[in-house]
Structure to design on (221 residues):
């Protein structure tokens, strides 16, 4: 009977009815592939490899990359709220981050995934950020870890005149401070070497407290 119905549909030029399926558009995670890194200068690739080796050997805590998936509708009408997707691990080194595959990124938002609730009255913006931190834990980021949301992969055409990272003549250059002139651009190998050394330098025991991280500063807001 089913075969006869299918034959009838085809004969009439109609397509057989199909059941509705759930189609979700998921952005590509930032994990770098060998092909995606092929454009990088050999010295830049070697600098990233060296930084990864030093951080790994020292068992330096890594950060988590995350991607924002905006609000959408399933089956065309079921609303889905904004959520987040885990997209690999790496380390933030100043204004750039590197992942375990050798990719280089301009740092986006830095958020600590946690359910911790700070005492006292909080502004609306602080409550929204707290909800974000809790949602990151809900979707699978370990409680207490730093999440680098929507970091921008550095590509061969990253020629921004004011961004943190630029590519000139095939070499990756880093701007230490926003708005700094091009004369302040630093080659990636020198930048990574210094930032990695700073990351691995033990805190001075004479100091009462270590310097707060970017995520810690956001937590206090």
């Amino acid at each position: 009977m089913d075969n006869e119905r299918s034959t009838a549909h085809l004969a009439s030029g109609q397509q057989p009815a199909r059941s509705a399926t759930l189609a979700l558009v998921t952005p590509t995670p930032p994990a770098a592939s060998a092909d995606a890194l092929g454009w990088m200068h050999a010295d830049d690739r070697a600098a990233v490899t060296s930084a990864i080796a030093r951080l790994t050997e020292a068992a330096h805590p890594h950060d988590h990359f995350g991607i924002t998936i905006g609000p959408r509708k399933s089956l065309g009408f079921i609303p889905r709220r904004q959520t987040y997707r885990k997209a690999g691990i790496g380390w933030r080194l100043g204004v750039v981050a590197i992942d375990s595959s050798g990719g280089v990124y301009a740092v986006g938002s830095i958020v600590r995934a946690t359910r911790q609730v700070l005492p006292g009255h909080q502004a609306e913006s602080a409550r929204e950020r707290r909800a974000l931190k809790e949602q990151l834990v809900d979707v699978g980021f370990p409680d207490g870890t730093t999440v680098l949301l929507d970091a921008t992969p550095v590509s061969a055409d990253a020629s921004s005149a004011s961004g943190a990272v630029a590519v000139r003549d095939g070499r990756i250059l880093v701007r230490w401070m926003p708005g700094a002139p091009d004369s302040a651009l630093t080659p990636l190998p020198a930048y990574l070497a210094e930032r990695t050394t700073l990351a691995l330098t033990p805190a001075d025991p004479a100091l009462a407290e270590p310097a707060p991280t970017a995520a810690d500063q956001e937590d206090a807001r």
Notes: The CA atoms of residues 65 and 148 lie 5 Å apart. Helices lie at 2-12, 42-57, 124-138, 188-200, 214-219. DSSP finds five helices and twelve strands in the chain.
